[in-house]
Write a structure and sequence with these properties.
Chains A, B, C, D: Pfam families: ADC. Chains A, B, C, D: This is Acetoacetate decarboxylase family protein. Chains A, B, C, D: InterPro entries: Acetoacetate_decarboxylase, ADC_dom_sf. The structure is a homotetramer. The first copy, chain A, has about 270 residues and is mostly beta strands. Chain A has a single domain, classed as Acetoacetate decarboxylase-like, CATH 2.40.400.10. In chain A, strands 1, 2, 3, 4, 5, 6, 7, 8, 9, 10, 11, 12 and 13 form a 13-stranded mixed beta sheet that branches. The first copy, chain A, is globular and about 55 Å long. Chain A starts with about 20 loop residues before the first strand and ends in a 10-residue tail after the last strand. The mean pLDDT of chain A is about 95. Chains in contact: A-B, A-C, A-D, B-C, B-D, C-D. Chains A and D meet through strand 1, strand 3, strand 7, strand 8 and strand 13 of A and strand 1, strand 3, strand 7, strand 8 and strand 13 of D.
Amino acid sequence: MRGFFYPRSASGDASLIPDPPWYYSGDLLTAEYRTDPARVAELLPPPLEPAPDDPGAVALIWADWQSCSSGRTELLDPVRSQYKEAFVVVRCAFRGEVYSRCVYIWVDKDFAVARGLHQGYPKKLGSVWQTRPHPFAQAAPSIGPGGVFGATLAAADRRLAEAVLTLREPVESNGFVNAHPMAHHRVYPGIERGASDSYGELISSGAAEFQGGQAWGGDVELRLFESPTEELARLRVDEIIGGYYRQVGVVWDGGRTLARLEAERPDYHG
Amino acid sequence: MRGFFYPRSASGDASLIPDPPWYYSGDLLTAEYRTDPARVAELLPPPLEPAPDDPGAVALIWADWQSCSSGRTELLDPVRSQYKEAFVVVRCAFRGEVYSRCVYIWVDKDFAVARGLHQGYPKKLGSVWQTRPHPFAQAAPSIGPGGVFGATLAAADRRLAEAVLTLREPVESNGFVNAHPMAHHRVYPGIERGASDSYGELISSGAAEFQGGQAWGGDVELRLFESPTEELARLRVDEIIGGYYRQVGVVWDGGRTLARLEAERPDYHG
Amino acid sequence: MRGFFYPRSASGDASLIPDPPWYYSGDLLTAEYRTDPARVAELLPPPLEPAPDDPGAVALIWADWQSCSSGRTELLDPVRSQYKEAFVVVRCAFRGEVYSRCVYIWVDKDFAVARGLHQGYPKKLGSVWQTRPHPFAQAAPSIGPGGVFGATLAAADRRLAEAVLTLREPVESNGFVNAHPMAHHRVYPGIERGASDSYGELISSGAAEFQGGQAWGGDVELRLFESPTEELARLRVDEIIGGYYRQVGVVWDGGRTLARLEAERPDYHG
Amino acid sequence: MRGFFYPRSASGDASLIPDPPWYYSGDLLTAEYRTDPARVAELLPPPLEPAPDDPGAVALIWADWQSCSSGRTELLDPVRSQYKEAFVVVRCAFRGEVYSRCVYIWVDKDFAVARGLHQGYPKKLGSVWQTRPHPFAQAAPSIGPGGVFGATLAAADRRLAEAVLTLREPVESNGFVNAHPMAHHRVYPGIERGASDSYGELISSGAAEFQGGQAWGGDVELRLFESPTEELARLRVDEIIGGYYRQVGVVWDGGRTLARLEAERPDYHG
């Protein structure tokens, strides 16, 4: 049976996602802010601990991606290569190292959901939009001083977040919250009624290759909205740190296990 | 940390899927046919074997569902409870017992993708449509003699399957291919480059409760179409067995492990 | 050139909508309430006047439709026959007669947008959901005492309205606001910069044939939400009149002109 | 009553489209080819005539747009400003002048459908995708020699067209078929059963302002697919003329009437 992911078959052609490495070209719009550190700590299960400094820092990042596998065939059938996502990153510590960690994420394609499942990103479907730069200004900003970019996120027919970013100047990086290797849980709930997880591990992962253009910084307004099925608004915006825009190229080619997790029965919600 | 599925949090409110049991009310349109048994066998990894009789039998089933958890709150926000799916079922044998097995499936909501991941259904997103019965005939068939129902499936902007079912008479069941407990693989690919699967098991699962209305049988036409990312058309329609329509109510409440699978490196496709 | 609507061609096969009559089978969930009559009057351009009694009455109606043309071929390709809509109806008077009038409407298919353009319904795209009844109660209400139905509307990634209807008893009708022939404007803005409308008429239209099941009445909760591109919330819910559920079959086969409108330059917004 | 388009209201805020002028920034991928001139002539109702030279020339154009009104507010809520379209252009003659004419077009937003209705573009909804250029090559081509771009079109869950364009060199223009002012019909079918059109005119329209980047030419492969509700494949690809890519900025600010059309009963299809 071949196929990196399901459905596996004799040829592997139907696999929802191809073998890594996976390649990405895209634009990142980042809003960094501070929330109550206790709200961040709630999202850090053991063995993770809060980051030692600025433990309430949060990055809400929009990304407009084109992606493909080594064969690049997806690029010629772009319904299979383009997707957008919005994701929330916090920082945490494990064995004395600081990691970034994605706690919420929404994407608009199924292959992106499956890649997230593999990488430990907790992906749901959402409707994600961000203003695009373009060389002609009739209906587009430029990546430069005064360029204004909007970004929105919705899921299940409710708007969850909105940002407006006005660029001011070149800066050294597009933020610090998402700048570490990721520390993610990969968990598979047990199939029996009331069972503990069948599998659990803490993994680390990051870009195998990374190219970044000039990062731009600016002023960002950010609004979060309540939803009965989301907890994003619980990470209330107490203080804006900054807003950033950057174009990047990335290769992802696997991660490594940081810790195997004890299989224990989760504290069921119901 | 609470939450049956990701993202887990202090409250569990954001979990993409709630704790089982899960409840379903819906309509099933089934087309059963025979294909080359070798094409079915290709989709049965060890320790599964072909079913001893009629090993080339296939069921292509459309389902128009409303579903909810025990709290039934999803029913009042129906964007979170309604979904449609089309799935392909074959039969197989394990330790002398015959099982049904879903080899391909497409759904149109993310919570359904996640439930499938838990249950071992290899779900992708698709666009799924089936004619609805209605008490007024201006633009609807009845579930009765002469009622005509259409059903279509598309994914990634390509039509994959079409069926037209004309009901003839009450029958004892809506087919035999999907009538056994399911035998599904639950597999989690390893995070390291080129690694074997981190986790693999063969599980069995079926309805904890089932209610079915009168099954109707009839004549069905079925067409499958090629796609570069799908292998459905490889299960060529050699001989139609029959077409069926049935309304059902189902409760699902977990399964059980049939076998833990050796963690072995999959035969990568690339 | 053939074709009821664009694009017209030698065969007419590509027309976005077929020749009337058009046939509909579906379920209607209605919430009737009173708002400030001045807000209704604002939506009644001359020569329309407010209805003489209860001029602030509003109906917000969700409809889950299957529809087709005389050839019924759309029913076998249900992506072309099923759609959902939510619409807002008020009443008005013209030459001493009372009419119903749809002031806002959202649908989820293009053929429905085009039919609305023909009939004078001001259709936009939206995401529309309403709970479905089903014979099996695992995840569905029945149309009967205690049956609870939810309904939601969103457009441009913002939720605009939500209703929850709990059925109590059979009633004589599913409301009075949408019970008259419709009085709609059909207007085509002029193509030249700043021009008056090229065409304008007031038309009346209703069902050529109608069948209705037992209407059920009950208690309804209704919430409207703000959006920068919608004015639905301006029709504030001051007093609930009632909630209703009814299954219907309808044929539509054209309307008639009530008045040709003077071509005058609209009072541009910009 | 204010509002350029429906629904008109006291403020005009709910109008599906704002007052012109409308502003556009986007990328155009064009495939030009020759088909049987008789198939083009079929789509030219009187008083239009075939173009005097190369009357079988066709352009199939994909466009990835960002658009806004004078206030530019849509750019900050990009679900309201971004859309994609694929459209088919032929040429025709009227009173000795050559015009371009859009005979089929699919878009993916409702505001684009409404603008098309105003401008005489026969817009349907479709799923439209085209590869995007990006400064980082991990998963994107550049606009330059060897850049490869794919483009696809689907409607009603069927793929209708696919193109693959490989850029070779700078060229003077991105084609000649769409290079003239547009000659479009604006037609409003009559509301009474079997009536002739209520309104009909032939209009001309083009860009009020236009900026174009360097046009690139190359080799293009184009495939058209059958659909029961489309006639695109009837414009069979007999000979490829060329493929082009160009980034543009456009302002549209109205057109002018070329001829009022006799109101005559269309030759109904049914």
